[in-house]
Amino acid sequence: MARSVLVTGGNRGIGLAIARDLAARGDKVAVTHRGSGAPDDLLGVQADITDAEQVDAAFSEVEKHQGAVEVLVSNAGITDDTLLMRMEEDQFTQVVDANLAGAYRVAKRAARGMLRAKWGRMVFISSVVGLTGGAGQVNYAASKAGLVGMARSITRELGSRNITANVVAPGFVVTDMTDALSEEQRAAALDRIPAGRYAEPGEVASAVNFLASDEAAYINGAVLPVDGGLGMGH
Ligand code: NDP
């Protein structure tokens, strides 16, 4: 059965790969964008996830076109890296507002329809850095670690209603976000990855697709690394 899916930040990068993967499975897939539009094969809805009203309006639009969201992929995220001693308070709060509070806003809005349907799948895109920490990423790592506590709390609240909330923790993935890294950062990262390479966005999408499937009904509050072994042991 075609399910109603919403992927935040699904207009590009990992989100787009996730959206296309779920669409290929036969789902009706909507993606958020912040004004740049979305590829023609997907339903684009405009929303900045730091704004609860925009989130609400985007969900209403999705509901109108493809029904209440049954599968939510909370993927939108930003980085604003700098060392702790140089990090301004707004650099911290803005990253947490987008990555963590943004996920809370979409999860809360999605839960309404999932509770009514007595079925739902939430997948939060975290990062290996949320588990291991990362120099220069106090804000980002805190926001990504927060997703684990959030998903596990949602699991405790909604787990008995056939709703799962899981976390995918990618390592380095080939996207605009990692394109921004310096050659030096790139080489240092490659040295630490047992797989010896970055992930393709589709490799993250496969993990999300599985967690969103019926077969994953008994997997709840889990953290699934997709990191080529980079974060092993966490
Ligand atoms: P990109 O920078 O390529 O894309 C980020 C996406 O998030 C864009 O669609 C962007 O929308 C959207 N976005 C950012 N802020 C907001 C906001 N306030 N409201 C709505 N949408 C927003 O990132 P990736 O594809 O690389 O990353 C996707 C997710 O995966 C992120 O959460 C990231 O932290 C995580 N991740 C990425 C890794 C990597 O190596 N690339 C590794 C581990 C985790 P717009 O187009 O409008 O800017």
State the low-pLDDT regions, or none.
none
Instruction: Work out the number of β strands.
Output: 7
Radius of gyration: 17 Å
- Reading side by side through the largest sheet, how are the strands ordered? 3-2-1-4-5-6-7
| Largest beta-sheet details | 7 strands, parallel
Structural class based on helices, strands and sheet pairing: alpha/beta
DSSP strand content: 15-25%
Structure overview:
The protein is α/β, with parallel strands linked by helices and 234 residues long. Helices cover 45% and strands 15% of the residues. The chain contains eight helices and seven strands. The chain has helices at 13-24, 52-66, 89-117, 129-132, 138-158, 176-179, 183-192, 201-211; strands spanning 4-7, 28-33, 43-46, 71-74, 120-125, 163-170, 223-226. The chain has a seven-stranded parallel sheet with strand order 3-2-1-4-5-6-7, with helices on both faces. Helix 3 (89-117) packs parallel to helix 5. The longest helix has 29 residues, at 89-117. The chain is globular. The mean pLDDT is 97. It comes from Haloechinothrix aidingensis. Residues 3-180 form the Ketoreductase domain.
Strand-helix topology:
Layout: E1 4-7, H1 13-24, E2 28-33, E3 43-46, H2 52-66, E4 71-74, H3 89-117, E5 120-125, H4 129-132, H5 138-158, E6 163-170, H6 176-179, H7 183-192, H8 201-211, E7 223-226
Parallel strand pairs: 1-2, 1-4, 2-3, 4-5, 5-6, 6-7
Helix pairs in contact: 1-8, 2-3, 3-5
